[in-house]
Here is the input.
Amino acid sequence: TEGLGTRDPDIAAATRMELTRQRSEIELIASENIVSAAVMEAQGGVMTNKYAEGYPGRRYYGGCQYVDIAENLAIERAKELFGCDFANVQPNSGSQANQGVFTALLQPGDTILGMSLDAGGHLTHGAKPNQSGKWFNAVQYGVRQQDNLIDYDQMAELAAEHKPKMIIAGGSAIPRHIDFARIREIADSVDAIVLADVAHFAGLIAAGVYPSPFPHAHVVTTTTHKTLRGPRGGMILTNDKANAKKVNSAIFPGIQGGPLMHVIAAKAVAFKEALEPGFKLYQEQVIRNAQALADELMKGGLDIVTGGTDCHVMLVDLRPKSVKGNATEESLGRAHITCNKNGIPFDSEKPMVTSGIRLGSPAGTTRGFAEEEFRQIARWIVEVVDGLAAHGADGNAEVEEKVKSEVEALCAKFPIYPNL
Ligand code: PLP
Here is the structure.
């Protein structure tokens, strides 16, 4: 009967402060979003108590009849959203979804070809410090020096040379459409499996505003919490029955134990929301907002890697203003604009410094911001960056303070979680 406030005032206070932070800051981290109250309610429910090793109808525990309803709904809705025949909704995260696919379809020591972290790939695509880079012979493709677009010719050359068993498409800082058909062609030429990790684009793909990896990819992984606007988690999709069977055994008992049934219930709710007509409108607005943000930043004298974006994310090249990614992230943070420092392709700065920041529109769009607000946000970013350029790495406290109060006024006009 005791609530959180009484039972654990420290955690209650931290949660309260986090809510205040989310309410009063502009969230531009491209991999974040703001879930609905319904998604949170499902995730905060009693399904957290339940052990359900196995899959619906074939569990190793009794009492699974109601969690089975949740998992079956999540699976059916996921299949409908992405137009595919099979979905495993149990991966606890995007990383574990990828690990599950590797466990299902590869052996340690196999060669994989993925996008390098520096160019916009993800750690799990073969980066050295990640298990994928330690347990596999990881070869990495990148982007072209002249335009920072994915270098498909390099991918084809590396594939011919190294004969990878798997080619991984996707990444965490790719602002343009991925040519999944081209990647499949390259893979077919060396008999490789195509894994498309669409973690960043999943919501856009579900809404039909970004190219689908199907039918080109053999297997697709995603997170559920970025553009898809669900709870934190992962998912694996495929049309191939044999791959599906291997993926199921790889997730359980291969790498996971009891699935997080409360999270799976919340995934089902998010997928239901994504099937509603409003979701397509939302995703269209996400893209328009990102493009407005990029356009206004360029007007303010910043460079955008590849000159713009086709989706929700962009990389801002700060070099025209001679400021660094880490100092910019901190200065914007003091002005209540949240983002992350990010290396730009061929960056000469260290990963903890960087010459860029990564920005995205999903969370702000959920809040209700449209192009007008995103153009204003861009002008604030330019103000802060100019302050930083003029006043050194500690920024310009006066500009930061002024922008912060304007940001808070905007946030107050677009409230989130009014009932919390
Ligand atoms: N794959 C891609 C392309 C990602 O961007 C991310 C997250 O940033 C992941 C996988 C990993 O997801 P998680 O953080 O849930 O493990």
